[in-house]
Amino acid sequence: MAKVRVTLTRSLIGRPETQRKTVKSLGLRKRNSVTELPDTPAVRGQLHKVSHLITVEEIKD
């Protein structure tokens, strides 16, 4: 299964609560924190919602 590596590149200070909860549900806490997630439609939707705060790299197995 393909995965994506997500890095939080922008701060959550001053962001709406929905964006903060989305970032938390992706497993990101502080700036520059990184997680690897499965590449599913649900995860892609979350990534799109906070795309201005993160960088995404595709990992091919």
Write a brief structural summary:
One of its GO terms (molecular function) is structural constituent of ribosome. Helices cover 30% and strands 28% of the residues.
Molecular structure report:
With 61 residues, this protein is an alpha+beta fold. It has a single domain (3-59), classed as Ribosomal Protein L30, Chain: A (2-Layer Sandwich), CATH 3.30.1390. Helix content is 30%, strand content 28%. The chain has 2 helices and 3 strands; from the N terminus they run βαβαβ. A 3-stranded antiparallel β-sheet has the order 2-1-3, with no helix packed on it. The termini are close together.
What's the helical proportion of residues?
Answer: 25-40%
> How would you name the CATH homologous superfamily?
Ribosomal protein L30/L7
Helix tally equals: 2
Order of helices and strands: EHEHE
CATH architecture: 2-Layer Sandwich
InterPro entries: Ribo_uL30_ferredoxin-like_sf (IPR036919), Ribosomal_uL30_bac-type (IPR005996), Ribosomal_uL30_ferredoxin-like (IPR016082)
Subunit structure: Part of the 50S ribosomal subunit.
Pfam families: Ribosomal_L30
Domain Large ribosomal subunit protein uL30-like ferredoxin-like fold: 4-54
Which descriptors would you attach to this protein?
61 residues; Ribosomal Protein L30, Chain: A; 2 helices; structural constituent of ribosome
How does the SSE layout of this entry go?
Layout lengths: L2 E6 L8 H9 L8 E5 L2 H9 L4 E6 L2
Antiparallel strand pairs: 1-2, 1-3
